[in-house]
């Protein structure tokens, strides 16, 4: 594994090292210096917390053998000169959606690194005030926040942010809010063809809380028993389209709060319009002749 880092300002070389008790085995006897970048080849890829820790080293630094490099890294790892980046924040909360006007508790845990970064919550780019508690002796910190949600929060994101001199880490949590409302209906065309002789298929899909009834199709005030239902969907199938099949179709679904309607307008294809026009002209011509 090749490890390379660039140099910071103030004539301080930035090298890559492991801030842990076990010193890695270095493959290169003499670390190479190329354009002020030190490169080490490591045989041991194990890292505590899976992190590579950059350490500041005063200039100049020209190690000539393996033992000197190991000794220097060991000295740095036991001091406070190491700049340790924070770990990616981990957010936990309820897996199931919560009801409207209820509160949700979210926790965010991170190792804030060295020097310690700041951990905080954002919602719509506004700061949320949480409670910060230490988790263990390894520097992990938990920030817990409680949020009162409403239906407008459904699908919105809450952000846990860890801000440290090495950068900013963010983890999002999507709010899932269930609220009571009339059924919401959606009509989708599930067939591609629209010619006169080919089948057309439309799906009316319902969702909501409380659970809505399976949608029902109506045409000219009459209920259509298509027999094609699946869960919260009802399918309208039109084959060999005729003029009597055209017009407005209504899809209706109900729940405890009331009913909702969605409409579908079926226009006659051009061939049927032409046929209808010819019949109409012939009828007028026949009346004139009489």
From TrEMBL:
<keyword id="KW-0325">Glycoprotein</keyword>
<dbReference type="GO" id="GO:0005886">
    <property type="term" value="C:plasma membrane"/>
</dbReference>
<dbReference type="GO" id="GO:0098609">
    <property type="term" value="P:cell-cell adhesion"/>
</dbReference>
<dbReference type="InterPro" id="IPR007110">
    <property type="entry name" value="Ig-like_dom"/>
</dbReference>
<dbReference type="GO" id="GO:0005911">
    <property type="term" value="C:cell-cell junction"/>
</dbReference>
<dbReference type="InterPro" id="IPR051275">
    <property type="entry name" value="Cell_adhesion_signaling"/>
</dbReference>
<keyword id="KW-0472">Membrane</keyword>
<feature type="domain" description="Ig-like">
    <location>
        <begin position="183"/>
        <end position="267"/>
    </location>
</feature>
<dbReference type="InterPro" id="IPR013783">
    <property type="entry name" value="Ig-like_fold"/>
</dbReference>
<dbReference type="GO" id="GO:0050839">
    <property type="term" value="F:cell adhesion molecule binding"/>
</dbReference>
<protein>
    <recommendedName>
        <fullName>Ig-like domain-containing protein</fullName>
    </recommendedName>
</protein>
<keyword id="KW-0393">Immunoglobulin domain</keyword>
<keyword id="KW-1015">Disulfide bond</keyword>
<feature type="domain" description="Ig-like">
    <location>
        <begin position="86"/>
        <end position="176"/>
    </location>
</feature>
<dbReference type="InterPro" id="IPR003599">
    <property type="entry name" value="Ig_sub"/>
</dbReference>
<dbReference type="Pfam" id="PF13927">
    <property type="entry name" value="Ig_3"/>
</dbReference>
<dbReference type="InterPro" id="IPR036179">
    <property type="entry name" value="Ig-like_dom_sf"/>
</dbReference>
<dbReference type="InterPro" id="IPR003598">
    <property type="entry name" value="Ig_sub2"/>
</dbReference>
């Amino acid at each position: 594994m090749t490890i390379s880092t660039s140099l910071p300002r103030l004539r301080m070389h930035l090298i890559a090292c492991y801030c842990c008790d076990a010193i890695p085995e270095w493959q290169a006897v003499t670390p190479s210096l190329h354009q002020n970048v030190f490169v080490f080849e490591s045989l041991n890829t194990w890292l505590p917390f899976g992190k590579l820790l950059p350490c500041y080293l005063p200039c100049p630094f020209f190690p000539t053998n393996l033992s000197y490099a190991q000794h220097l890294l060991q000295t740095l790892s036991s001091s406070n000169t190491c700049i340790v980046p924070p770990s990616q924040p981990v957010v936990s909360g309820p897996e199931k959606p919560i009801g409207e006007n209820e509160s949700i508790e979210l926790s965010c845990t991170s190792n804030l690194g060295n020097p310690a970064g700041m951990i905080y919550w954002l919602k719509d780019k506004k700061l949320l005030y949480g409670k910060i508690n230490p988790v263990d002796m390894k520097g992990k910190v938990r920030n817990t926040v409680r949020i009162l949600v409403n239906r407008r929060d459904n699908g919105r994101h809450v952000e846990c942010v860890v801000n440290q001199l090495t950068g900013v880490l963010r983890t999002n949590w999507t709010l899932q809010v269930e609220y009571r409302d009339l059924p919401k209906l959606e009509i989708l065309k599930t067939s591609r063809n629209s010619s006169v002789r080919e089948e057309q298929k439309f799906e009316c899909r319902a969702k909501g809380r409380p659970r809505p009834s399976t949608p029902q199709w109506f045409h000219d005030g009459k209920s259509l028993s298509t027999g094609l239902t699946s869960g919260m969907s009802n399918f309208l199938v039109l084959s060999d389209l005729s003029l009597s099949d055209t017009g407005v179709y209504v899809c209706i679904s109900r729940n405890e709060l009331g009913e909702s309607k969605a409409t579908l307008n079926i226009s006659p294809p051009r061939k049927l319009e032409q046929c209808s026009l010819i019949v109409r002209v012939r009828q007028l011509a026949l009346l004139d002749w009489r």
